[in-house]
Design a protein that fits this description.
361 residues, alpha+beta, Major capsid protein gp5 fold, 2 domains, 6-stranded mixed β-sheet, 22% helix, disordered N terminus
Length: 361
């Protein structure tokens, strides 16, 4: 009887398992629903992997033209306007991980089964790592200095005019390093629904403006809150303010919830802001953790970018198998050359605002 099997590191096996690993790992991530290849995505995936020398993929932002123009038969020559462009670099590096069987007797599995178990384990590991990249880089959290957890490059703290702290029912502009001045662990500085209104105003008045994401024809922002912030938002009830439950009476209606993945798992919508909950939203602080605080993340389009090295990305990850101890143990490694970062043009965060709030358990 003929049996089809793939030996260790056979071309067919490498192609099959590497593609399957990437597809399943990305599908499992929390961040995948916010990724896309166009400029309308919250996290734009750079598809041009033909990078030049070095370890970066360069992005270019062209600012809107601001000239007055020439009316009638006025002379246009000599009154042209120069294009204004800014660049940002996504650095990429190789990251790998591996698993190794305990041996044929202890595992009592054939090598093909070990492959499947290795893929499942590495799939979970990569899904967790990509989500960790996503939240650390968007929040600009310097609490994690190991670049293996920040998109293969150092996270950058929130830039001027893009970081706020809770101050009662309002927000106060702060730098990341001075966010201890307010946003302390007190009931008056917990997250409130009205804070979103302040962030929306800031997003619309920023230069350049923080563009919302197009969702089913609607302009929507996306905000990520820690479960503690979600709790504080829900219990905030004052006669002078709209409560969370009031806001949800007319939200999340129509077919858009079912038809667009960006709504999947959302807690609700307020003032065209889709609110998501994640335990990965980091604490406040730059050099040290500010206890009893979390740094909420408010995003528009192109808030972050992810890039890949040649041969990686939607096509495949690396997949390498090796036998040890005279064929008794099978080791499997998987990795990719990639990077993720918050988008920054002209020394300013391009599509994200952060808000540090206190909480009281």
């Amino acid at each position: 009887m003929a049996v089809t099997s793939y030996g260790v590191n056979s071309p067919e096996a490498v192609k099959l398992w590497s593609r399957k690993l990437f597809h399943e790992a990305l599908k499992q991530t929390y961040a995948s629903k916010f990724m896309g290849k166009d400029s309308n995505s919250l996290c734009q995936v750079q598809t041009d992997t033909s990078k030049g020398p070095g370890d970066r993929v360069r992005m270019i932002l062209r600012m809107l033209l601001t000239g007055d123009g020439i009316q009638g038969d006025g002379t246009l020559e000599g009154n042209e306007e120069a294009l204004t462009t800014y660049t940002d670099n996504v650095f990429i590096d190789q990251l790998r991980h591996a698993v190794r069987s305990g041996g044929k007797m202890s595992e009592q599995r054939i090598p093909y089964s070990v492959r499947e178990e290795a893929r499942s384990g590495l799939q979970d590991w990569w899904a967790d790592r990509i989500d960790t990249w996503f939240f650390n880089t968007l929040a600009g959290s310097l609490l994690q200095s190991d670049t293996r957890y920040t998109g293969n490059q150092a996270a950058t703290e929130p830039t001027a005019l893009h970081h706020f702290v809770a101050n009662g029912t309002g927000v106060s502009l702060q730098s990341a390093v001075t966010e201890t001045t307010t946003g302390s662990a007190s009931a008056s500085n917990t997250f409130k629904l009205i804070h979103i209104d302040s962030l929306i105003r800031t997003a619309k008045l920023s230069n350049p403006q923080i563009r919302p994401v197009k969702v089913g024809g609607d302009d929507m922002y996306v905000m990520f809150l820690h479960p503690r912030q979600i709790k504080d938002m829900r219990i905030d009830a004052t006669a002078a303010r709209v409560t969370w439950y009031d806001a949800q009476k007319s939200a999340m209606t129509g077919g858009r919830v079912e038809n667009n993945p960006i709504f999947t798992g959302a807690q609700g919508v307020y003032n065209n802001t889709i609110i998501h909950e994640s335990t990965r939203v980091p604490h406040g602080g730059s050099s040290a953790t500010l206890t009893n605080t979390h740094r909420a993340i408010f995003c528009g389009a192109q808030a972050a970018s992810m890039a890949f090295g040649q041969g990686f990305g939607s096509s495949r990850m690396s997949w390498m198998e090796e036998l040890f101890d005279y064929g008794n143990q099978l080791g499997v490694s998987a990795g990719m050359i990639a990077g993720m970062k918050k988008t920054v043009f002209n020394s300013a965060d391009f599509g994200v605002l952060t808000l540090t709030t206190g909480y009281v358990d």
